[in-house]
Design brief:
17% strand, seven-stranded antiparallel sheet, 424 residues, alpha+beta, Serine Threonine Protein Phosphatase 5, Tetratricopeptide repeat, four-stranded antiparallel sheet
């Protein structure tokens, strides 16, 4: 089979919504790279969307939109990617532009029908499908949409959920904390809560807001923040005389040298590479730093806390996954990339680099040789081989998030040190 016939066969599979094999996808990539027109690149974008890689398809489609701003198939491809990423408003605006340009295009009407169905606007979806069938009565996709609308027992349109923006959530939470007589203070993105033991608990407001948005069957903003304030007010519960149970929940975290000013009263010690070691209590919802004032009532010493925290972390290494850096975003890689992530996602992955159990897992993936580590993302630790400059230079260029720690660290059997040669 000639190359052109093979590519045409692949493109027909894409149009049918089928997922391509790796070899077929690479063949499509090769054709798209040498093409000046939109069709091969558009086919590649649709192939990625068929495979669930909407985020990878989006920049390709955005570039096509810049090159061919009035091309309706390009608009529809971009709208499809936006819908896959749940950016329904952006997709709708693009579809309206496409319809204004081509009012009778049944392909535009089909995507509008899908968007209406997603929003529970059944009558509107039926109108789009009827219009599309009047223009192309033999279109298989439109006929399928019509059959689904007629056969499915669709529920009534959902009552719009309460739309609460983050500033409104934060203001409501502050009011609830005041009514609950919880002493607190805003500090950047965090909330500092005064504990009865004299220490301070630190809570990420963004995480609280995300949990509220994801809470199933929420009773509304008011009841939610009242219950949350009650929980925050009890953050220090159990820090009294728990002893052994308290030790079992301790974990170490690495923080920058100036973090002491942000976690007032929290127990900490000097760590490696001009970092500080703080201690948190394992908690599914909150980052709870152990206040120094809790040591006496719990019958613990600084040394006992440090030993228990590292022992607990040693017992829970994180999986090591190959990753790539795509436009500043860390994404999982399907094969060897030269970069790996220690990514349990619990904020402890930087400290895990110092445990023997984690180093063994790293050696299985990256080999038993010195590594560069990056802590620019608090939710994961990134590593690359020292012998692979093309990989660790990517880490060196990665901008830290507000919670991350800038610079590269040299990781060896001796521990963690700041690396000057890599531009720290």
């Amino acid at each position: 089979m000639s190359v052109l016939l093979e590519v045409e066969r692949i493109r027909r599979k894409v149009e049918a919504g089928e997922v391509l094999s790796d070899a077929e996808l690479e063949a499509l990539r090769a054709q798209a790279q040498g093409s000046e027109g939109p069709t091969p690149r558009l086919a590649l974008a649709h192939a990625l969307i068929n495979a669930g890689a909407d985020r990878e398809a989006l920049p390709l489609l955005e570039a096509l939109r810049r090159d061919f701003p009035r091309d309706v198939p390009v608009m529809l491809g971009l709208a499809r990617a936006l819908l896959g990423l749940e950016r329904n408003g952006d997709a709708e605006a693009l579809l309206r532009q496409a319809r204004a340009q081509e009012p009778g295009d049944p392909e535009v009407l089909k995507v509008l029908a899908v968007l209406a169905l997603r929003r529970g606007e059944v009558e509107k979806a039926q109108a789009y499908v009827t219009d599309a069938l009047a223009r192309d009565p033999f279109d298989a996709e439109t006929r399928l949409l019509k059959a689904e609308l007629e056969a499915a027992e669709l529920p009534p349109p959902a009552v719009p959920e309460e739309q609460v923006l983050r500033p409104e959530f934060t203001a409501a939470l502050a009011g609830a904390l005041g009514r609950a007589r919880v002493v607190f203070r805003r500090q950047g993105k965090d909330l500092l809560v005064k504990l009865a033991t004299g220490g301070v608990g630190r809570v990420d407001v963004g995480s609280l807001y995300a949990a509220y948005r994801e809470a199933p069957g929420s009773a509304g903003l008011g009841p939610y923040v009242e219950a949350l304030a009650a929980r925050l007010g009890g953050l220090d519960s159990g820090l009294g005389a728990e002893g052994a149970s308290l030790e079992a929940r301790l974990r170490p975290v690495l923080r920058p040298a100036d973090f002491e000013a942000k976690a007032v009263g929290a127990l900490h010690r000097q760590g490696p590479a001009r970092l500080e070691v703080f201690y948190v209590l394992e908690d599914a919802d909150f980052v709870r730093y152990l206040p120094e004032s809790a040591l006496g009532s719990a019958g613990l010493t600084r040394e006992a806390v440090d030993t228990a925290a590292w022992r607990n972390l040693e017992a829970h290494p994180a999986p090591v996954r190959p990753v790539v850096i795509d436009r500043g975003e860390v994404r999982l890689a399907e094969s060897f990339s030269g970069l790996w992530a220690v990514a349990a996602g619990d904020g402890l992955d930087g400290a895990r680099l110092l445990t023997a159990s984690q180093r063994r897992l790293l050696a299985e993936q990256a080999g038993d040789e010195p590594l560069y580590g990056s802590l620019v993302r608090r939710e994961m630790a990134l590593v690359a081989r020292v012998s692979d400059p093309s990989a660790w230079e990517v880490l060196a260029d990665l901008e830290p998030t507000p919670e991350g720690i800038a610079g590269l660290f040299f990781l060896s059997d001796e521990g963690l040190t700041r690396d000057q040669a890599a531009g720290d």
